Request: fold
Amino acid sequence: MNKLGQYLQERKIEYYPDHEIKPYLTMGIGGKVRFIVVVHRLSQLKELLSFIAAGGHPFVLLGGGSNVVFDGAFTPLPVIINRTSEIVKCEGAHIVKVDSGVLNKDFLTWAIENRVGGMDFLAGIPGAIGGAAAVNAGAFGQSISTALEKAEIFIPGSGEIKTVDKDYFRFQYRDSVFKFGSEVILEVYLSYTDEDSAEIREKVKEKLRYRNENHPQWNANVHTAGCFFKNPIIHDKRGSAGKIIESAGFKGRTYRQLEVSARHANFIINKGGSTFADILDLEQQITRTVQEKKGIILEREVIYISPEGKKY
Ligand SMILES: Cc1cc2nc3c(=O)[nH]c(=O)nc-3n(C[C@H](O)[C@H](O)[C@H](O)COP(=O)(O)OP(=O)(O)OC[C@H]3O[C@@H](n4cnc5c(N)ncnc54)[C@H](O)[C@@H]3O)c2cc1C
Reply:
């Protein structure tokens, strides 16, 4: 780890030793980590990953940190915050190549300016494109798996960088092989449709309006990771986890510093100072009650990360 500190210092890469992870997570639950490393360029990310992998060390890579909670008081690993930022239109092919660290909101701003349509479903989903691809983020009946054609990835075991197609992801509802795996998506190729800037802007606005009216606001004082549970399959169709949790009596309930949102019962809000033990307790209360009262097994959508870097 000292070698990593030296490596980062020599290359003037932004890093923070023994630092709180909370400010990097929208849910704000986690302890300290050995290194937070913020990477802004793809070449820098590739080199850093090769360096870490050559030493055989585990690491955690995050985009926007909007779907994760750290379970330990101290995680003795580097946590890479991916802020790579390049977007390039591949002329003639209706394909756009996006660095995995580009935030969804920045991608949408660019998409509006560049008349790249079909991505408006990402409006209001926090996080980065790589994170969205890893968890197959989606909304309004669409998800990133529809647009993703191929990706360049890094494989920590071999240190190899290769291009893989959509099948490699094994996309499912809010899932892909990257969600709990250690391979890293470096950049993605997304297919798009031509659309007027004004039309895209209006669609984005519409989606943000819907979210503002129906979801809890998310800001510096309202910490959440979005939908906590996956929508379960009921009679061959995805039901609403929010409605199920509501009918089990949890909507608006508080537990210590946590609150089951009064607006949407699948959003759990950390009002400040919540611990991993608190969230685990509440998760268990909800899943147990829903199973007893409704006979439905809820599966967590939010990812927990252990001090060994295991995602579960
Ligand atoms: C207010 C709010 C609303 C939300 N609404 C939605 C919604 O409508 N639909 C939805 O699907 N989600 C929603 N979410 C959840 C979350 O924002 C999405 O899942 C988002 O796409 C996660 O992206 P991220 O960059 O924050 O990922 P992170 O939380 O940083 O990481 C999530 C997982 O992806 C992995 N990962 C991240 N980047 C990479 C990479 N480059 N390569 C390989 N693995 C990677 C991480 O290691 C981790 O396992 C919401 C969250 C909030 C807070």
